[in-house]
Design goal:
Low-confidence stretches: 1-7
Shape: globular
Mean pLDDT: 90
Number of strands: 12
Order of helices and strands: EEEHEHHEHEHHEEEHEHEHEHH
Oligomer: single chain
Distance between the termini: 15 Å
Length: 264
Amino acid sequence: MEKGNSGMLARRIIPCLDVKDGRVVKGVQFENIRDAGDPVALAERYSAEGADELVLLDISASREGRRTFFDIIERVARAVQIPFTVGGGISTVDEVASALAAGADKVSFNTAAVLRPELLSEAAARVGSQAVVAAIDARRRRPGDPEAGWDVWIRGGSQPTELEAVEWARRAVGLGAGELLATSMDRDGMQAGYDLELLRALSRAVNVPVIASGGAGSVGHVADAFLQGNADAVLAASIFHDGTVTLRELKQGLAALGIPMRLQ
């Protein structure tokens, strides 16, 4: 990880591109999907504006049971110089290797890993833990009561499981995941702030980086994810797609609060 201006390890800002039928889309709590643009054009834009990494998720692949979007991976890899993670519909080690060969730096798993956890260890053995991301879509079991825990959902947020998110995170890291991407389904697209209790619980439970996802609506929300949620990176989509704040504005605002940022 690069160091920020203060010499401390820089926190990462990661725009997320949810891709459906070849287009970037955005919804609210995994519903009410709307078009947000071309994935390659947005990847280029966010890279130029100072994104540290990108995440591209084929949001309908697992639900529809088809392979992920290797053509888009190749086009994005040609267009940007920053690392990017891909996920959605990748369910075999050979597909992991194909995604990396197409230009991705990391692969994230949610549904496939929940259904067959050993996929995480197989992937880590093949490509290394640093390229394996466990994505967890979590919803509170009882609203307003973090002590009750969070359920893990799969298939693009359409199917609940009996797994508890923090327990599953520990297991996923034990199997070989080198990073966690934690999305709060309660906060997704609401732009009302991240689920800080979820982030704190995950950060305490594992010794790998935790990426916060679901809820960014302001510089303050992102700062809270770092300072109160102990996140190592934040994922955001709506605030960038809608022009609420630019990457440069966000990073400058966070740096002004003393959070180490890689500034261009």
